[in-house]
Amino acid sequence: MAIGFVLIHISPAHEYEVFNKLSKLKEVIELHPLFGEYDLIAKIEAIDYESIGQIIIHKIKTIEGIIDTKTLTGIRLH
To answer: Percentage of residues in the chain with pLDDT exceeding 70?
Structure first.
């Protein structure tokens, strides 16, 4: 499994709407509000890193109110 962390910048007055839509995506396994440059961080899980990219492009960036994202990918250390 591939893991990605997506930092999300949201336009004012869309925070709750974006949070609710992201929380309904099965690939989003954690979602936390932030203070600072970004408004949310989402932890997403997919079968591989190409799928992570597709989730971000087709499911996350298409949500109204999202201005910008920054994606960090990682691996599980055992």
So the answer is: 96
Assigned token pair, 72: 């960090």
51: alpha, beta or left? (left if phi > 0; alpha if psi -120 to 50): alpha
- For residue 23, give the 3-state DSSP assignment: helix
Q: How many CB atoms lie within 10 A of CB 44?
A: 25
Structure-block tokens of residue 47:
């079968």
* Beta carbons within 8 Å of 61's beta carbon, 6+ residues apart: 69
**Nearest to 18, CA basis, from 44, 40, 51, 45:** 40
- Give the predicted TM-score (pTM) of the model: 0.90
How many Å apart are CA 73 and CA 52, to the nearest integer?
9
